[in-house]
Amino acid sequence: MWDRHARWWQETFTDGADPEYEHEILPGIAAELSGCHRILDLGCGEGQVARYLLRSLPAPAAVVGIDRSVAQLANAQLANAQLAGDPAPHYLRGEGERLPFADASFDGVVCALVIEHAEDADAVLDEVARVLAPGGRFVLLVNHPLLQGSGSGLVDDQILGETYWRVGPYLDEGVTWEEVDAGVRIPFAHRPLSRYVNPLAEHDLLLVHMREPAPPAELLATSVAPDLEQSIPRLLAMRFEHRPRAAGPSPWVGAGTRVEATYHRPEACDDRPSRGASDG
Ligand SMILES: C[S@@+](CC[C@H](N)C(=O)[O-])C[C@H]1O[C@@H](n2cnc3c(N)ncnc32)[C@H](O)[C@@H]1O
């Protein structure tokens, strides 16, 4: 599925095309990972986050990108070829659910707008915790689960004369196929926030910082209610730190609290490649 849409992704979201990436996402991730040296970009796509980190973090940052889409990775390699001798990220094909790295290989991991497309978020988070060294940082960036889930959005009711932001069914977990552009349909898994924070806490990855940036004004140019939309974040960026506790019961998570919300098992996304298949 991401192979089919790799060109759309590149044209719409990279190289300055998207104000949110330019003003919020790229600098925000770099700020959260400042001080890290061995960084994994999980679901790197065509590599814009990895390249930005190498440009902006002090040497000797080594950045490895992994993605399951062949076409996204081909674009990432093309971009590397244009770096003309500057440090370039390393890329490999693989799945976040089965990372091909030894335990504690990285002191920074970023997963930017990826986990909504992963079928098995628990496996991805387990793997992040495994490859992150003690003291390391994990930056998880998602479409805001509370405000941007399926059924959420601006309602401009001309009959009642009300304009408001509707929140969809927050606790219901599921996958929705959304037409995000003409001819581009992508599955988004909605999960309540506890489905990310609690499994990470079980692995001693503790939430230490959050960003909920206001949308850039450029994106609201055609909004019927820009002031309202300005107060509704599209993104949620969370930084977790790996702080292994001494042996004994967790002070952070009680037994049986892995999932606090009642939720329905999501339908499978149909974009998962069979092992060895070339589509991503
Ligand atoms: C929305 S793009 C984001 C790309 C990149 N993180 C960025 O911010 O520019 C999502 C990417 O995640 C990748 N992806 C989705 N699920 C994945 C998984 N389970 N393992 C590895 N990559 C995955 C897709 O192939 C796609 O390239």
Brief overview:
With 280 residues, the chain is an alpha/beta fold. It contains 7 helices and 11 strands. It has one domain: Vaccinia Virus protein VP39 (Rossmann fold), CATH 3.40.50.
Highlighted features:
280 residues; alpha/beta; Rossmann fold; 7-stranded mixed sheet; 11 strands; globular; binds S-adenosylmethionine
What does the secondary structure layout of this molecule look like, with pairings?
Layout: H1 6-13, H2 19-32, E1 38-42, H3 48-56, E2 62-67, H4 70-81, E3 90-93, E4 106-112, H5 121-131, E5 132-143, E6 153-157, E7 162-166, E8 174-181, E9 184-190, H6 194-202, E10 205-211, H7 226-230, E11 235-242
Parallel strand pairs: 1-2, 1-4, 2-3, 4-5
Antiparallel strand pairs: 5-11, 6-7, 8-9, 10-11
The structure holds S-adenosylmethionine.
CATH hierarchy class name: Alpha Beta
Number of helices: 7
Give every kind of bound small molecule, once each: S-adenosylmethionine
Specify the helix fraction band.
Answer: 10-25%
Q: Rg, please? A: 19 Å
> Order of strands side by side in the largest beta sheet?
3-2-1-4-5-11-10
Distance between the termini: 6 Å
* Class per helix and strand makeup: alpha/beta
